[in-house]
Amino acid sequence: MPEPQTAELLEEQQVETFSEIGRTGLTRFGGHIKEEFLPELQGKKGQKIYREMAENDAVVSAILFAVEQLVRGAEWSVEAHGEEDADILAADFLEQCITDMSHSWESFISEIMSMLIYGWSYFEVCWKVRAGKEAQPTAEEPNPATSHYDDGLIGIRKLAIRSQDSLIGWAFDEAGGIRGMTQLAPPNYTPTLIPISKALLFRTQEAKGNPEGRSILRGAYRSWYFKCNIEEIEGIGIERDLAGLPVMHVPKEILTNTALSSLRTELESIIRNIRRDEQEGVLLPWDKDFPDAYKLELLSTGGRRQFDTSEIIGRYDARIAGVVLADFVLIGHSAVGSFALATEKRHIFEKAVLGWMDSIKGVINTHLVSRLFELNFASFSGLTALPELVYTMPHVPTLEEVVDVVSKMADAGATIFPNLALTNFILGYAGLPELESDEYDEMLAAGDFTKPADPSQAEPEEEEPEPADVDLT
What we know:
By secondary structure, the chain is an alpha+beta fold. The chain has 14 helices and twelve strands.
């Protein structure tokens, strides 16, 4: 028979059951994350490079613009998860809070999208007591926040961005969980810890619990780096081809005599700074005994280059756009690609954006909505479930897609016309004038619309008689 467990063993097992033993494996030293293996992309240096990519590269800017416009086009609403009176009141209260902030909900969503560039975005949640528009100052609150409501409930004053470049370190607990962000921001430049319990942290991904996520531009860095270098070399080459390679003939004493080093430096400066513009010109000495001394000429290069830089740069642009499945923005730029291919790629891109939208919605409902009702729990007794902020991302089909769907439904026997709402939708989408109801009724009475034939009501076709057997004997 097994030996009975001792009290010490039971206590030890109970401690292991409710304690956290392992760690996430996040590479960090103090408050600094060291997951990035390229030194140039770590910390402040990495933030500068990602900002340069976002603001100084046409393809990256186009991709970020496409993402932001899709996200800003989403419609947010409040959804109650219960039928009790308290559930309906809670949903109304949440909708009031998101429209009663000192900034718009759309600007908040736009600020969140900075996480695409840096991998994360951090917001401090600032609360307020809803004391009406004429809130009176007190010793504790000399500048009280105004509100459209005066019910005394706690609402949201603002969701304030805490910029990525103000980060000086992260605070972690003993188990590796995030305690907050320490920032050093102008104008005071005072180290300040913003606890996670008072903040919202949005990330593109959450590998190893990394608070800094991962920039969507990380995979495009290598292609962007080479493309920038090639573009710079291409620009220098074009300038030199147009201006010519400057060559100056000088006496050999200038190259060998150290006493003439200052003159040599001056002549080298003239060579390097030759540019073709409205102020071009060179002033040089001339000696009639040595007419070829200080002779200046521009050598031009002939023939084509072995490498097509436009093709190389285009290849890197395609790789940059392909990192986030946005290469449809390049279709047609090089006389390649089709409209159908662009449409299909756009649909895939929209699905990828939906993943980020689901992540944003999860953070808002889990950490903002729940805290809001914890602060106001006494006012919503009987609440069966918390309301939820949800979004709808309208898909705008092309006119060809609409016509294709309608045609296939009609071919399948569906009664499409007469239908005034559907007719006006198609006409309006095509940019054509919509029909008035009276005009539509007149067209219907005149027989301008015909219903598709019902196959079940069709008369059976007469079978042709089989030919009689003929005796040929």
